[in-house]
Write a structure and sequence with these properties.
Length: 80
């Protein structure tokens, strides 16, 4: 009877470790796919930010008006 326990316990441990390894590897693969998807989504924004930065470094004026100078009604203005 003791021999069965000595054989069953290591086999059960190997089985549990196998399930854990399978789960961790699957999670790593999913994480890699999510990172690739995020990279694809962020790439246009990164390119735009680099263009703006290059334009600013070259001294080009901004194309749009800054957000804090837009004409919003405030305490000194009435909402027409």
């Amino acid at each position: 009877m003791l021999l069965v326990v000595w054989i069953a316990v290591p086999l059960l441990c190997l089985l549990v470790l196998g399930f854990l390894a399978y789960g961790v590897l699957g999670a790593l693969q999913r994480l890699g796919r999510e990172a690739e998807g995020l990279q694809r989504e962020v790439a246009p924004l990164l390119a735009q930010a680099q263009q703006v930065q290059a334009g600013r470094a070259a001294g080009e004026p901004m194309g749009d008006q800054p957000a804090n100078t837009s004409r919003l009604p405030g305490p000194a203005q009435s909402p027409a």
